[in-house]
Amino acid sequence: MEQFGFPYTSLRDAEIKAGNLNARYDVVILPAAAPAAITGEPAGARGAGEGGGPQGRAGQFGRPQSYPPEYESGIGREGVDGLRAFVEKGGVLLTFGEAGTLAIERFGLPLRNVVAERKSTEFWCPGSTLKVKFNAAHPLGYGMPAQGLAVFLAGSQAYEILPTDFNDRIETVAAFVERDILQSGWLLGEETLARKAAMVSVKLGQGRVVLIGFRAQHRAQAHGTFKLVFNTLVNGPDAAPARSSNGEGR
Questions:
Q1: For the chain, how big is the Rg over CA atoms in Å?
Q2: Which CATH number characterizes residue 113's domain?
Q3: 116 near 51, Cβ under 8 Å?
């Protein structure tokens, strides 16, 4: 962030739990981590599922079960509630990879991670560059080419938008191409990703949740998709639903 002139603060668990994040922040970013690792809840707890299917990293990076309470961390239910309140009051929550599961499950977003349903014999993409189409007319896709590449790793996600009465609140910013998706690496089960959303923006209250299923910032090397992150930081708050005269989102 500092290399591109974006001021930022590293949020601690206690500050997220305390709430009132809108007083200090416009955008909150959740890294690609399993929900259980973010919340500190057991992996089997409600909404703490890893959501990564056979490629999920719960066993590798999930919350250990043997830490004494004084060494445990996580935002807990209070933090999840605080993040939702932050969004509903006009904030923007950006999630990478597995963190999208937390937003989907705990905020009730009408999205489904299609990768989570697949066995490793049906879908496997441990670290590859894949072809993606971008909606450059969307404020979060400004400056992107019509088609580019995305870094897809174990734990990355792809989304299907479920039919609801509120689908007009969901906008696809990037989606995988229909065929010949693989540019470099390994991909088993191409049909799982075909035309599925790779980045979506979901309006929630006066704000929005932006889910990027892949690593747009991977190891500070994915320069081709940095703009998706930067656009979310710059345009995300302004792209949120307009407020009516009574202050409620439309």
A1: 17
A2: 3.40.50
A3: yes
Q: What is the mean pLDDT of the chain?
A: 86
159 within domain boundaries: yes
Q: Convert the pLDDT of each residue in 78-88 to its tens digit.
A: 999 999 999 99
Q: Is 4 helix (H, G, I), strand (E, B) or coil?
A: helix
In angstroms, the CA 24 to CA 12 distance is: 13
List the helix and strand counts (H, then E) for the chain: 7, 10
d(CA 59, CA 45): 15
| Coil/strand/helix, residue 136 | coil
Residue 179: inside a domain: yes
Count of the separate structural domains present in the chain? 1
Structural domain contains residue 242: no
Cα dihedral 202, 207, 209, 210 sign: positive
Structure tokens at 65: 């079960």
What is the rounded distance in angstroms from the CA atom of residue 221 to the CA atom of residue 249?
37
Range of the domain at 17: 2-235
Report the percentage of the chain scoring pLDDT > 90.
Answer: 70
> Is residue 245 a part of any domain in this protein?
no
**Using CA atoms, how far apart are residues 58 and 68, in angstroms rounded to an integer?**
19
Mean pLDDT for 186-200 is: 97
Cβ(164)–Cβ(112) below 8 Å: no
Q: What would the pLDDT profile of 157-169 be if each residue is shown by its tens digit?
A: 999 999 998 899 9
Distance of CA 68 to the CA centre of its chain: 30
Residue type, 55: Q
**With the C-alpha atoms ordered 96, 98, 101, 102, is the resulting torsion angle positive or negative?**
negative
pTM of the model: 0.85
